[in-house]
Amino acid sequence: MSPSSSVHANMAPPIPLLAVRGSDGTSFLCGPPDCQEHSAFQRDSQRSKCFTFSRDGTLFAWANGQSVSVVKSSDGSVVSTIDLPKTSLLEFSPLGSTLATWQPYAKTPASPQGEANLQLWELPSGRLLKALYQKKFESWCPSWSEDEKIAVRSVNNELQFFENNDFNTIANKLHMQKVSDYVLSPGGQPSRVTIYVPGSKGAPSFVRLYQYPVLGGPTAALANKSFFKADRVAMLWNKKASAVLVTASTDVDKSGASYYGEQTLHYLAVNGETAVVQLPKNGPIYDVVWSPNSTEFCAVYGFMPAKATVFNLKCDPVFDFGTGPRNAAYYSPLGNILVLAGFGNLRGQMEVWDVKKYKQVSKPEAPDSTFFSWCPDGEHIVTATCSPRLRVSNGYRIWHYTGSVLHKQETPVGSELWEVRWQSFPAGTFPERAIKYQAAPTELGTTQAKPTMAYRPPALRHLPATASSKLHEEEAPQDMRAPGGEKPLSKTALKNQRKREAKKAAKQDAKPEPPSDPAPVSIVQSAPSCGDPELDKKMKNLKKKLKAIEELKEQQASGKVLQKNQLDKVEKEEQLLKELEELQLEM
Predict the structure, then answer these.
(1) The 3-state secondary structure of 109-145, one letter per residue
(2) Which residue from 170, 276, 464, 470 has the fewest beta carbons nearer than 10 Å?
(3) pLDDT for residue 469 is more than 70
(4) 491 has a pLDDT exceeding 70
């Protein structure tokens, strides 16, 4: 147990800090409920390029363009200062024993081959352990197992493994042509790694899962999944390191159905099981997240309005949240709450769900947000509008998941907010509390979204809204588990259930309307010809117009909203009837 977790075991949970970085410098804010600037940390007015907390949150490091500083989060006391003016990226090893720093690779007259731009520093001494070459910033930092017994980095189509932070000796290698990405499993031993090799010359792309130190060919792999449609992949381990989700993406959808290219979702488990996750709605896959319990995951997908569905480890749907304006999902640190959100080009509307009951808690709104993060206490959230994504209206808000706003900070005009980040804590630091459904009143009010209406032209706004005025047909949330039980329906049972529902709906539509008042006799009846071709022609045109008006009135009675030109036609009915009556008198 770490020192911080042993301290917290017999006392009230700590108050998380929020680190804030912008054009005005770097500062700390004490988290909820008070939300005041951290008095022990002296604000650094220099413009920081990056900052990060250690895994347990006890250390904080930032680079301000002159040096890299490491301090204790509790009191701001200096642990180490390293003279590194060009540092752009920082990362602590899981136990906080090593600090990795990266600066852009560059060649100089003094060093035509370029200088080693990835440095590993021992803490707290600040001694340089190893300097390495890392030209690209993608996957720049070595990946460590949680106990730091294993570390791995990608170098020229091979994965190099190091043991016990000895970066002078390569302990093992996984060499495979064109390995373009890898992800090391979370947690301690045994360490597992997934690798991605893109397809070429008609061969498929594939993802393989290995357990260290057995890193041989395909037969050594714990699981193997190949697919043709993949220009790149995103690989995501669950917390227990028992399974991986792989989102495979193509840059171009050859069918022309999607601007976003084409995505598929795959599942691989350490026991060798693999599957393609069947998503009921066509369109992009916006987000995929594991629940902290490692037994479920949520996918947000499909053309707008997007669907969101929770699946179990058999890739069967457990709960469908229906459709809505969303493109992201965020489980709380304790896994008991799920937030579905629509950021970016959407309005910032969020849905907060109680995952155990699958009941909606609140529906807040955070317009123009470019960042969202759960507080480690599982009770609070920060949303922020940051540059360079948005250069106006920068600032952040801290709020309770029920929608109560506890703190609001707007960046002054002429200044920019670049990043906010919660202090991290060991698992088990914060207890799980009962979920609240009522927002507590605060001075700043709540962020509950106002009900939105579909756009209606001015000419139709005086008429009652109907279902046909909706731009999209919305789907309601649906529990996919068998009635009265926790076990989800099988794919066959689910398919049959949908068929039965569709059949039932079709029968409902086909049922004859109940008898109502006798239908009015149509004004447009056949009349004998008067013998005057000109008069006959006029009467025929009038009857045609009246018949069209009669049809429009029937549509209006059934609930359809008429357009302005159609309403104008209906208003002329009396005039046309009068004209027809005058013509009939002339016969």
Answers:
(1) CCCCCCCCCEEEEECCCCCEEEEECCCCCCCCCCEEC
(2) 464
(3) no
(4) no
Extract the tokens encoding 120: 């590993």
Per residue in 375-419, pLDDT (tens digit) is 999 999 999 999 888 888 899 999 999 988 999 999 988 899 999
| Residues whose CB is less than 8 angstroms from the CB of residue 5 and which lie 6 or more positions away in sequence, other chains included | 56, 426, 428, 429
Phi, psi of 548, deg, nearest 5: -65, -40
- What is the C-alpha end-to-end distance of the chain, expressed in Å? 104
Which whole-number Å values give the CA distances from 587 to 346, 379, 530, 544, 569, in the listed order? 65, 84, 6, 19, 26
Q: Spell out the residues 6+ positions from residue 444 whose beta carbon is closer than 8 angstroms to its own.
A: 404, 405, 406, 407, 408
Among candidate residues 266, 201, 257, 272, the one with its CA nearest the CA of residue 233: 266
Burial classification of residue 23, based on how many CB atoms lie within 10 Å of its CB (0-12 exposed, 13-18 middle, 19 or more buried): middle
51 touches 60 (CB < 8 A): yes
CB 118 within 8 A of CB 99: no
Name residue 342's beta-bridge partners: none
Give the lowest-confidence range in 70-74, 208-212, 482-486: 482-486
- The SS3 assignment for 333 reads coil
Distance from chain centroid for Cα 136 = 26
- Confirm if 77 and 94 have CB atoms less than 8 A apart: no
Question: Which two three-digit tokens encode residue 319?
Answer: 């709960």
Q: What is the mean pLDDT of residues 359-364?
A: 91
Number of DSSP helices (H) and strands (E) in the chain, helices first: 5, 36
Q: Which helix (H) or strand (E) is 571 found in, with range?
A: helix 564-571
Question: Cβ(378)–Cβ(422) under 8 Å?
Answer: no
Q: H/E/C letters for each residue in 395-420? A: EEEEEECCCEEEEEEECCCCCCEEEE
DSSP state of 33: T
Cβ atoms within 10 Å, residue 511: 7
